[in-house]
Amino acid sequence: MSMETVVIRSASPADVPSICTVINDAAHVYRGVIPADQWHEPYMPLGDLLVEIERGVLFCLGEANGAVLGVMGIQDKGDVALIRHAYVASNLQRKGVGTRLLRHIEGLHDKPILIGTWADAAWAIEFYERNGYRVVPASLKAGLLRTYWSIPERQVETSVVLADERWFSLQ
């Protein structure tokens, strides 16, 4: 697969099953890495995905030849936008799909962008750092997670937040 054959597009309601499949396939890398009490199977049940969409997460897909290769969502939270649920099929990671999705999603908003991920997911943090994001100071992390995300307190404790330069320039 070459990156030229990958098409990035907005997801439609018909894409929801494929989004769920990619998320659950790719999320297996978290098993044994994130706290055991935060892992569940499936990682993102279909009902939870539908709730995220109802809460305003807009998904984009990377696809080639009709197959969904990766997904990434963005959620407008007023003064910032959140990158949500960014996953690439496990057999296609590190081939540029995630970067293509990220660049597309970034172009949808002119607001500062925040990203939350698991603190022990070094590969995810490194991906965002390679793409220009920085980990926010630990002193601000919990406040950001509680303000902009609806996650359990245990997840707040075990996550990090990354931000783009627009966010840092406003601090």
Write out key terms for the chains shown:
7 strands; 35% helix; Aminopeptidase; 7 helices; alpha+beta; globular; 7-stranded mixed beta sheet; 171 residues
Structural class: alpha+beta
Q: Give the fraction of residues assigned to helices.
A: 25-40%
Order of helices and strands: EHHEEEHEHEHHEH
Strand content: 15-25%
Shape: globular
What is the annotated CATH architecture?
Answer: 3-Layer(aba) Sandwich
Outline the low-pLDDT stretches. none
Q: What is the fold named in CATH at topology level?
A: Aminopeptidase
How many structural domains? Answer: 1
Number of helices: 7
Q: Mind describing the biggest β-sheet?
A: 7 strands, mixed
Placed side by side, the strands forming the largest sheet appear as 1-2-3-4-5-7-6
What would you say this structure looks like, in words?
The chain is an alpha+beta fold and 171 residues long. Helices cover 35% and strands 25% of the residues. The radius of gyration is 15 Å and the shape is globular. The termini are far apart. 31% of the residues are buried.
